[in-house]
Design brief:
With 111 residues, the protein is of the alpha/beta class. It is 39% helix and 33% strand.
């Protein structure tokens, strides 16, 4: 299953719900283009439905976070499954990203 996504706006935040897998640059091309169209640079990636991710996916996350911070926003991660969270720990990306157990907790970080 390739990546699919949908976006909702809550207050000043764009919540991007990711579903499927990010295992190649091609999987993430549409997401990268979509990020550029968001009206808010306060972004939450809700990973509830994301099954697998590898270094290509982490690369997209880093690029998105960089764009957000350049535009005075940020990227927060919510609801990673156990395997995705382990990947963040192994790669030390858990020290780079703000990772939360729920999108509600992440939303509170932007208040």
């Amino acid at each position: 299953m390739n990546l699919s996504f949908s976006t909702s706006i809550q207050g000043e935040c764009s919540i991007v719900n990711l579903s499927g897998n990010i295992l190649s640059e091609e999987d993430a091309d549409g997401l990268s283009k979509h990020i550029d169209t968001l009206s808010s640079w306060k972004v939450i990636f809700d990973l509830t439905e994301l099954k697998h991710i590898n270094s290509s996916g982490i690369s997209v996350f880093v690029k998105t976070m960089t764009k957000c911070r350049i535009n005075e926003g940020d990227l927060l991660i919510a609801n990673p499954n156990h395997n995705i969270f382990q990947l963040f720990e192994i790669t030390k990306m858990n020290e780079v990203f703000s990772i939360h157990d729920s999108k509600e907790v992440a939303l509170n970080q932007f208040k």
